[in-house]
Amino acid sequence: MEKDKLDFEKNIQVISAQNLEELFYFQKSVRDLYIVGAGTTKEHLSNSHKGIKSILFTRTITDLCQIEKKERYIDIGSASSLAQILELGEKIIPKVFYDALKSIANPFIKNLATIGGNICYTKKRLTLFSPLLALEAGLEFKASASDTLYIPISKFHEVPKGYFLSKIRIPIEDWDISIFKKLGPQETINAFSAFFTFLAQIEKAVVVDVRIAFCGNISFRHKELENKLLGIRLPLSSKFKNELILEAEKLYDLSFEEYQENNTISKTTDALLKQQYLNLLSFSLDYLS
Q1: Dihedrals φ, ψ of 23, to 5°?
Q2: In the sheet that 2-8 helps form, which strands lie side by side, from edge to edge?
Q3: Is the pTM of this model over 0.85?
Q4: Phi and psi for 119 in degrees, rounded to 5?
């Protein structure tokens, strides 16, 4: 257990914990402690939390780097690196999640960046949020060894005060159609970055489950849209597909209005992202036509 002083942008105290016991200790004893994965998203540290005095990186805590595969789900420790998860292979983790991991940055960053850091960046939703939202992942937060909180990723907005993300549970299901698409620059994130996920299960030419997630500045998964597809016999008619696209546009506009209440995004950016979302939705629906 040690404390070091480093000049990280400002005079921020960097604290090192070797295990969960030390992490729990520092969480209780250090006021306004800021916990991150590996700190690869520098903007998150310098802009989003300008008042932080102490920071603790979880990447060195072995307990938070464990991955456990079960029959119906996989549990991934929040400090697991993206490269570590990728090594499991496409046969172990869901395809859309695997494709999302592959699309992130370069091998160097993949070796450092953690799944927890990608999820908990709240200025905008990053690469992994879209597939995890579609897969209905669950998030486990801890304040102490005996104080654990579980939150569905669909209900997650920010890390609860006094807690840290400890584990991500990803359900394992068979999907007949699995599509993940990344919009914007390939190895960085900007205002035009967004992430689209489409999943569908089909039995005897009938849609039995479908999930559509779009994440970036604006993030949503519209159950109303998904419900319109449930029970539909394939192939989709052109008329039904066009009606669905129009409904998707209305729902997108509602999400944009809600987002603009507390944030600002240019009309140009919004128009571009909306058109790309509708294009990707149309592309995905073609698999059902």
Answers
A1: -60, -45
A2: 2-8, 10-16, 54-57, 33-36
A3: yes
A4: -75, -40
Strand, helix or coil at 240? helix
Q: What's residue 7's pLDDT?
A: 43
- Among candidates 63, 40, 64, 39, which has minimal Cα distance to 52? 39
Q: Tokens 């938070």 belong to which residue?
A: 64
Long-range CB contacts (< 8 A, 24+ apart) of 187-193? Answer: 187/105, 187/106, 188/105, 189/124, 189/126, 191/217, 191/265, 191/266, 191/269, 192/269, 192/272, 192/273, 193/124
| One-letter identity of residue 59 | R
DSSP 8-class letter at 209: E
**pLDDT confidence of residue 2:** 47
Mean local confidence (pLDDT), 204-229? 96
CB-CB contact of 116 with 165 (8 Å): yes
What is the Cα–Cα distance from 176 to 173, expressed in whole angstroms? 10
Decide: 218 and 255 in contact? Cβ < 8 Å: yes
> How many CB atoms lie under 10 A from the CB of residue 267?
8
